[in-house]
Write a structure and sequence with these properties.
This protein has 326 residues and is an all-beta fold. The protein is built from no helices and 28 strands. The strands form seven sheets. The protein has a four-stranded antiparallel β-sheet, with no helix packed on it. The protein has a four-stranded antiparallel β-sheet with strand order 2-3-4-5, with no helix packed on it. Belongs to the WD repeat STRAP family.
Length: 326
């Protein structure tokens, strides 16, 4: 499983996202330019130029026509995937942290950071079929959680929104009314800020990663804790195989303390865990800095990781990976 090294970013990676077919990979980084690559061979197709700050997150529509990006320049932009043209800009009063299209791509949930007296918020925007008809008005705005909301995604059938962030609590909101429906039990939940959240392929459960050196698997409907994966480093990124019962965690020590140690001490590898047994079953080394982003190809045959070192590493699994019997 020799990785393909993709060098197109000048600064640390922040987020990776495959389109539904799994032929395109979108990467976000702190260098202002979201980039799209061929997922098969790692060839760079192009960049989306227009942001003026770090880009924290992106999502792509089901038909791979529309890209949405969230940036520290206090804006969220819609792009034409094919041409790279900017279609619309949503402006906010604070940095935009995460974006997620609803099923059907008619809505997008956007989280914004606390900034200069503005509290963090979850905003729902309606996405017009015709970009010239696009409005900047929010359909719904939810405030309440303290600190940054690092990730918000749609629950099943777009009826709920799941959010998690610095206050280490996972919350489920009603997407119509904005009412808080459930929050994670502090006894079993994370003890430090939640850095990442990803849903399973069928949406029935989701995985959170935290600086408390663990990842947790939750039931989407009931917010019951199903599994906990303990590791010996802060977790910055999590992903799940759509094919096998594998969970992948990425992380490493904080960037500020990295320079004092050599690359072996930093624990910069993507760790594979058995989803059911919660045991570590393998790892993929390679990054020269913490892993900030992970994504599985929807076909389950490859995955990519993005690091503090500015590289995206694309790993195609050997055929015998699919015969692993633990």
């Amino acid at each position: 499983m020799r990785p393909i090294l993709m060098k197109g970013h000048e600064r640390p990676l922040t987020f990776l996202k495959y389109n539904r077919e799994g032929d395109l990979l979108f990467s976000c980084a702190k260098d202002h330019n979201p980039t799209v690559w061929f997922a098969e061979n790692g060839e760079r197709l192009g960049t989306y130029r227009g942001h003026n700050g770090a880009v924290w997150c992106c999502d792509v529509s089901r038909d791979s026509m529309l890209l949405i990006t969230a940036s520290a320049d206090q804006s969220v932009k819609l792009w034409n995937v094919q041409t790279g043209a900017q279609l619309y800009t949503f402006s906010f009063n604070s940095p935009a942290r995460s974006v997620d299209f609803s099923v059907g791509d008619k809505l997008a949930v956007i989280t914004t950071d606390p900034f200069m007296g503005v509290t963090s918020a979850i905003n729902v925007k309606s996405i017009a079929d015709d970009p010239s008809q696009q409005s900047g008005e929010s359909v719904l705005t939810i405030t309440g959680p303290t600190g940054r909301i690092n990730r918000a995604v749609w629950g099943s059938l777009n009826k709920t929104i799941i959010s998690a962030g610095e206050d280490s609590v996972v919350r489920i909101w009603d997407s119509e009314t904005g009412k808080l429906l459930k929050e994670s039990d502090p006894e079993v939940g994370h003890k430090k800020p939640i850095t990442s959240l990803t849903k399973s392929a069928d949406g029935s459960h989701f995985l959170t990663g935290s600086l408390d050196k663990s990842a947790k698997l939750w039931d989407t409907r009931t917010l019951t804790l199903i599994k906990t994966y303990a590791t010996e480093r802060p977790v910055n990124a999590v992903t799940m195989s759509p094919l096998l019962d594998h969970v992948v965690l990425g992380g490493g020590q904080d960037a500020s303390s990295v320079t004092t140690t050599d690359h072996r001490a930093g624990k910069f590898e993507a760790k594979f865990y058995d989803k059911v047994l919660q045991e570590e079953i393998g790892g993929v080394k390679g990054h020269f800095g913490p892993i900030n982003a992970l994504a599985f190809n929807p076909d389950g045959k490859s995955f990519s990781s993005g690091g503090e070192d500015g590289y995206v590493r694309l790993h195609h699994f050997d055929p015998d990976y699919f015969n692993i019997k633990i």
